[in-house]
Design brief:
two-stranded antiparallel sheet; 4 helices
Length: 69
Amino acid sequence: MDDYKLLGKDEVREVMGGCSGQMAYRVIQELNSELREKGIATVQGGVSKKYLLERYFGGTEERGAEQCR
């Protein structure tokens, strides 16, 4: 059930390897836009952990630190 948790800006920053808050919010906006296009309801300021990991890291969290450096 943890995969369906909504992540906020600070949690996205952590998963993305410490990128800026502005970058994290941009990622949330981008992913939510993609989900809305697919007809999936979204919550402003939060994104599904599962979708973030699939979209940016191929489903794993280990590679997160590499992405924002």
